[in-house]
Amino acid sequence: MRAAVFPAPEICEIVERELPAPAEQQVLLRVETCGLCGTDGHIYRGRFPARFPLIAGHEFAGVVEDVGAGVPFLRPGDRVAIDPNICCGSCRPCRRGLVHLCRNLAAVGVTQDGGFATHCLLPTRQCHKVPSHMPFDIAAMAEPVACCLHGIDRARIQSGDVVLLVGAGAIGLILLQLALLQGAAVTIVSEINPDKRAVAERFGATTVVDPQKDDLEKIVRAATEGAGPDVVIECVGGCQTAQQAFDLAGEGGRVLLFGVAPEEARISVSPYQIYRKEICLTGSFTNPFTHARALALLASGRLHVEELISHRVPLDQVPRGIDLLESGAATKVLVQPQGLR
């Protein structure tokens, strides 16, 4: 098997390894498509806790090539998408149903080898079957969609709500579609990249704003008759945008911080405003019990992710894919370990 290995930060090597055999409750997957995520870039740059040397990549789908003992529901030839997050099942959060907050959380592509390889050895329970008609490129998008579904659940969007989305990368554009499916009456999208603003318009955003040129606060107040949005979703992960999200929320507003900010980042929050305006400030972490829902939604055709895929790269161009993503030139980059199709 061939793999893109990160032996240390800022280093990527293409290596040949012996094909592993699955043990009990494991499958060997031939990886067809693996999405590049901002987390992969943080790992590559040494800004995210990971186990080196590492084969990164946690958004992937492929074909089962071999199964170990005790695997009753998967057979060679089955098409599957991968939920990368592995909980222990024994700690207090797990036993309360908060598996995503597991104190011993492991993750494919972070703490164990992932999808930037022609093959990957996986625990059976991380595999979700996908319909035969679903392209692998779409199935690989199930992981980010699953994370976004958890975020939408946390945001508690109601029919008729005014929703402001700050940032329209792949995640923001998925969240925009989910907000519309939840019945948002008005959707305002703030995004600096004109191409991504154009996609937001095509997806049905009511108003798109260039925050570098336009007065976002003025536009939001005008669209809400001065009240402010019912829901604000921050998808950037920056201090300025997180502060903006809190400041713009209307009475009774819900603020979802979805973007991943640096651990040391801080914003200024007024306890009085939280009290007086009854603002609900919440976060969203990974994809607890939402992977199957994500695949069902993708299979239904009601969620469109094809247009988000801007680049496809072979295995030996993973660093280039990361550069494209970090520069803003790409919306979504897919790595295809078996070669470009």
Oligomer: single chain
Poorly predicted runs: none
Which CATH architecture of the largest domain? Alpha-Beta Complex
Number of domains: 2
How many β-strand stretches? 17
Question: What's the level 1 CATH class of the largest domain?
Answer: Alpha Beta
CATH superfamily of the largest domain: Medium-chain alcohol dehydrogenases, catalytic domain
Gross morphology is globular
Strand content bin:
15-25%
Supply the number of helical segments: 11
Rg result? 20 Å
Largest sheet: 7 strands, mixed
N- and C-termini, Cα separation: 19 Å
Order of helices and strands: EEEHEEEHEEEHHEHEHEHEHEHEHEHE
Mean pLDDT: 97
Helix content: 25-40%
- Quote the CATH topology of the largest domain: Quinone Oxidoreductase, Chain A, domain 1
Q: In terms of structural class, how would the helical and strand content be classed?
A: alpha/beta
